[in-house]
Amino acid sequence: QVQLVESGGGLVQPGGSLRLSCAASGAIVEIGDMGWYRQAPGKQRELVATITSGDYKNYADSVKDRCTISRDNAKNAVYLQMLSLKPEDTAVYFCKMVVMSTAQLWGDFWGRGTQVTVSS
């Protein structure tokens, strides 16, 4: 079994910054793509940013100039640095990893999410 745990969310004023972290643990052999997604109340979950095992990064247009995704393969972790936060960034942020487990099967695994609230 593979578990993902996010941290770093919270309440921040508009224009502020946050750094989200997500660490995977469990029966991991290899991790492929990693990513961050978010879901605001009443809206569908949407992609924020992804990073491949080869370090190729992709961002949603809404965050492209304000967010940086990175990964630490030694720690099985992915990070999201967010700057110049706006009220519309308020959402639950989820990390997702594509993981090969010890059962030699690739699968998508999700964390439970961390709340980010941008408000004055």
Strand content: over 45%
Determine the mean pLDDT: 96
Q: Which H/E pattern describes the elements?
A: EEEEEEEEEEE
Low-pLDDT windows of residues:
none
- Secondary structure: number of strands: 11
Residues in helices, as a percent range: under 10%
* CA-based shape: elongated
User: Mind summarizing the main beta sheet?
Assistant: 7 strands, mixed
The SS-based structural class is mainly beta
Number of helices: 0
Distance between the termini: 40 Å
Roughly how many Å is the radius of gyration? 14 Å
Tell me what you see in this structure.
The chain has 120 residues and is mainly beta. 0% of the residues lie in helices and 60% in strands. It contains no helices and 11 strands. The strands form 2 sheets. Strands 2, 4, 5, 6, 9, 10 and 11 form a 7-stranded mixed sheet that branches. A 4-stranded antiparallel sheet has the order 1-3-8-7, with no helix packed on it. Strand 4 and strand 5 form a beta hairpin.
